Amino acid sequence: MKLSMTKGNASVALDLMACPSLPQLFDAQAKLLGDKPFLWAKRMGAWRPMSWREAEGEVDQLARALLALGVEPGDRVMLVSESRPEWFVADMAIMTAGAISVPAYVTNTVADHAHVLNDSGARLVIVSTPQLTERVLKAALSTRHQPKIVAIDPFELEQNPGIDIIRWQDALEMGQAFADQDVPALERTDTACLIYTSGTGGVPKGVMLSHGALLHNVEGARILLESLGLKDEVFLSFLPLSHSYEHTAGLMFPMAIGAEIYFAEGVEKLGDNMVEARPTIMTAVPRLYENMRARILKGVERTGGLKKTLFMKALELGGKVYEKPGSLSLFERLQNAILERLVRDKVRARFGGRLKALVSGGAPLNYDVGLFFTALGLRLLQGYGQTESAPVISCNTPLQAKLHTVGPPIAHTEVRIAEDGEILVRGELLMQGYWNHPEITALVLKEGWLHTGDIGQFDKEGYLQITDRKKDIIVNSGGDNISPQRIEGLLTLEPEIAQAMVHGDKRPHLVALAVPDEEFAKSWAAENNIPFSMEALCGAPAFHKAILKAFERVNKNLSNIEKVRRFVLVPEAFSVDNEMMTPTMKIRRHVIRGQWGARLEALYE
């Protein structure tokens, strides 16, 4: 791997495809950039940086400490932490030690952590806050092979639970004592991490991603964005680093191009953090852009008057420039130039004032949301990928973004459309398989091609457009994969509900269509002295409230992203005769949506 210098600014040369591993890339960058700021976090009300040299020192110390604690090459080490500099240090140290990083969501329950620990066989867990440590400890005590724990923040115990808990600082000091210990040499084919993702059965599976897969993605992103200059870049990271999208695009990619990374304090402070950090590139999921658009429009509505008039005119003309290039009249061009200063500059200032690009991934972006930001002078690039592809497969380019597409495939990536329309992907970016699930792996990886389960087509310029989903997985606007069958199964087990269909693709939360159980409906009508009519009952608020109890019972046992927030009752049962069911009694989602889709969509109003 070659590195080049340009007036004090470091940049990776054209070929990352020759780099053996992520730790070796980081080591080269750290030696080149030295005391320059790298990882920023807010402490005691002020942003404080960790330099490249400091990060390199802690990574080296922690990697040697892991080896001293008995971690061997190929062992799995679980990482549970909010986004902070120590997350990167821990992740890179795990890989440096030759082990496999297993990121876990901070929102995981004790049972979720226990599943990941048991499934991965993790030898050690690195965890941050006392609250998270307590949850991990409870999970660890229930596992078959109880792991050691390294606690980043101090964790006090009244009594030793029988599991070794090592303080972060003690681990770093331990690493210093083992400074002479060699770390293993790594190759691109070595597994770097296990990213757990849910599938059709709803049980999270560990996706094995190699160093080569992640480096392939990083190089693809670098080539894609090189027209932006990629000099002195600043990223603001706020998505969970346990998500493959943020892990690659918001952590490994910035590291690879020598960028600075600010770790946001949380979504609630994101607006302030953008103004403070002044990012040049931001990665986010559609839900964030939806929320931003809603907040901006509400603010404009409250302000009213001339400001509202100017804002809406900027939206109108900006949209026209994108959708009908060259169509503005002379007067409209003059108006648009004035609005660039009066409206768009102020909007850009709210994002820090120096954004080169907003990147959207993890779920499909609504066209109107994309057009909104584009019309306001913010470059928004929609991409496409899956955890199984490390995750980026394609993305729009800065020089030509088509909002209705997910752009052309990234460099060194083959994408073709199968006879049935399914998108197939091949290249080094592909996963090595699902951990402990060779039979499921074989269903997804066939003859070197990843079968994505998405239906798509290419336009004449090679831009990929997603037109449908082959598999029944809901991807909400936050990028979470949700199995609707599992939730529908739980709902139809309740005595009040005969049939159900869950809906929420590209949406912030789930809603549902439910057919009441006829016996329950008759009984309820009799108890309330109401003549039985399924159609009348489905429109009765009191009956709706009775069915609500079933949803509340089911929701208690579901994660936040799986909870059904609202529902509509329909009197007509799904059947083979009305084509809403197959002969094997599976619901035909597209037929049901064709009949009741408008009422489902109305639940989001």
CATH class bucket of one domain:
Alpha Beta
Q: What is the share of helical residues?
A: 25-40%
End-to-end separation: 53 Å
Q: Major β-sheet, in short?
A: 5 strands, parallel
Low-confidence stretches: 1-14
Using the CA coordinates, give the radius of gyration.
26 Å
Beta strands, count:
28
- State mean pLDDT (0 to 100 scale): 92
Query: What is the fold-level CATH name, i.e. the topology of one domain?
Result: Rossmann fold
CATH architecture annotation name of one domain = 3-Layer(aba) Sandwich
The strand line-up of the biggest sheet is 6-5-7-8-9
Instruction: State the secondary-structure class.
Output: alpha/beta
Number of helices: 19
Task: Categorize the overall geometry.
Answer: globular
- Bin the strand percentage: 15-25%
Overview features:
605 residues, alpha/beta, Rossmann fold, GMP Synthetase, Chain A, domain 3, five-stranded parallel β-sheet, five-stranded antiparallel β-sheet, 19 helices, disordered N terminus
Short description:
With 605 residues, the protein is an alpha/beta fold. The protein has 19 helices and 28 strands.
